[in-house]
Design goal:
binds nicotinamide-adenine-dinucleotide, oxidoreductase, UDP-Glc/GDP-Man, 437 residues, six-stranded parallel β-sheet, UDPglc_DH_bac
Length: 437
């Protein structure tokens, strides 16, 4: 199959490279000149484990190419994916669909022969209808079908997720799209991945309902963690105790500083807006959004409390900036709110992240970036672990303590044992691990 991927970001690039790896002929398109130039010269604009090798292999095999020329690529394609960003619209939280609609317009004018246009971007219910309307209006002669195929991959494990998905959801309104989409994913369902066909609106809603559910699960365990701290219980054991129940499941029950990243915050907000506008408000998600928002600054108050209620003029080292490990993605990372709240309280911030510092630099003001965790901790009153990178999981705690001026360690991911941290001389605090009275 000849496939065009419109948008070569985290989703487009991974999907494009994986589809090429299945044997399809894929052209990845982007408007960003720097991204395309870098890809054409053998570089990779994002950090995602395994992606550089996967791209190199498929470029070498002649199945994967990169271009800015969408209009020139579409006429040869059997399938054109739209994988552009759908950020929260400034001011009201609705998904900003302007990139999707611009792409649809551009694609429409160069369609040639029957083509399936597939929204892989996360888009609100009804977007497929509008994409179809735009294409018909722009090019009344075009032979096409519009399908919805939301992406469920996680950054940091994106290739594995794309190649071994729990399910592939495809929403169609035109039966001509079915055999085409079956052919796109044929190599996958030979591995038993269920390919689920639904109506287009249902498919669009599945993505939001899934993300909002996961965000709610994380938020639930974060509230339980808060309670654990008050009553002297251990949230990790509570999570294990409930997670072993198959009806609940153990995933997404890790208490921490609140969810972040490029999907959960904007997708929960967008679902709240869609539900409100449709007269069927989803109060559980409205509350999830509010709890999560306040949690991030509450984490800064936790740090301040551990520093005897005062961080003015003190140095606080923040270890881990990205919203989760194994990505360089800084969009809506909890570290941004935590650092801002600590700065508001007068702290000086030194920070370190294994992959995220380049993306973090323009998003953070008055932060000193260090070359490693120990360098970041030099002279600090407190160290805060925000992201559980492997490289931060086995720090030499006595060495860390040795370079600091103070002795506070706040571990927002519960990666250290309290007794070990205390034995290294730290005043240690973590999340949801209360002391029995
Ligand atoms: P991204 O910002 O990394 O990438 C989007 C890319 O599209 C950018 O490189 C941009 O330059 C390009 N673009 C915009 N308009 C274009 C146009 N008209 N023609 C060509 N290129 C264009 O975004 P992302 O993280 O890859 O997310 C894309 C979509 O996938 C979003 O809707 C997101 O919600 C969804 N999604 C993301 C993830 C994730 O983990 N990042 C997971 C599942 C779904």
């Amino acid at each position: 199959m000849r496939i065009v991927m419109t948008g070569s970001g985290y989703v487009g690039l991974v999907s494009g490279a994986c589809l090429a790896d299945f044997g399809h002929e894929v052209v990845c398109v982007d408007k960003d000149e720097r991204k395309i130039a870098l890809l054409q010269s053998g570089g990779v604009p994002i950090y995602e484990p395994g992606l550089a090798d996967l791209i190199a292999r498929n470029v070498e095999a002649g199945r994967l190419t990169f271009t800015m020329d969408l209009a020139g690529s579409v006429p040869q394609a059997d399938v054109v994916f739209i994988a552009v960003g759908t950020p929260a619209r400034r001011g009201d939280g609705h998904a900003d669909l302007s990139y999707v609609y611009d792409a649809a317009r551009e694609i429409a004018s160069s369609l040639n022969g029957f083509t399936v246009i597939v929204t892989k971007s996360t888009v609100p219910v009804g977007t497929g209808d509008e994409v179809e309307r735009i294409i018909r209006e722009t090019n009344p002669q075009a032979q096409f079908a519009v399908a919805s195929n939301p992406e469920f991959l996680r950054e940091g494990a994106a290739i594995q997720d794309f190649k071994r998905p729990d399910r592939i959801v495809v929403g169609i309104e035109d039966e001509r799209a079915r055999p085409v989409m079956e052919e796109v994913y044929r190599p996958l369902y030979l591995n038993q991945a269920p390919l689920m066909f639904t109506g287009r609106r249902t498919s669009e809603l599945i993505k939001y309902a899934a993300n909002a559910f996961l965000a709610m699960k994380v938020t639930y365990i974060n509230e339980v963690a808060e309670l654990c701290e008050r009553v002297g219980a251990d949230v990790q054991q509570v999570a294990r105790g409930i997670g072993l129940d198959n009806r609940i499941g153990s995933k997404f029950l890790h208490a921490g500083p609140g969810y972040g990243g490029s999907c959960f915050p904007k997708d929960t907000l967008a679902l709240v807006k869609t539900a409100e506008d449709s007269g069927a408000p989803i109060r559980l998600i409205e509350t999830t959004v509010a709890i999560n928002e306040s949690r991030k600054r509450a984490m800064a108050r936790k740090v301040i409390a551990a520093c005897n209620g005062m961080v003015r003029g003190k140095t606080v080292a923040v270890l881990g900036l990205t919203f989760k490990p194994n990505t360089d993605d800084m969009r809506d990372a909890p570290s941004l709110s935590i650092i801002q709240a600590l700065q508001d309280a007068g702290a000086c911030i030194r920070a370190y992240d294994p992959e995220g510092m380049e993306a973090a630099r323009p998003m953070l003001r008055d932060v000193t970036f260090a070359s490693g965790p120990y360098e970041a901790a030099e002279g600090a009153a407190a160290v805060v672990i925000v992201t559980e990178w492997d490289a931060l999981r086995a720090l030499d705690l006595p060495r860390l303590k040795g370079v600091m001026q103070g002795n506070v360690l706040v571990d927002l991911r519960n990666i250290y044992r309290p007794d070990v941290a205390e034995a290294a001389g730290f005043i240690y605090d973590s999340v949801g691990r209360g002391m029995p009275p």
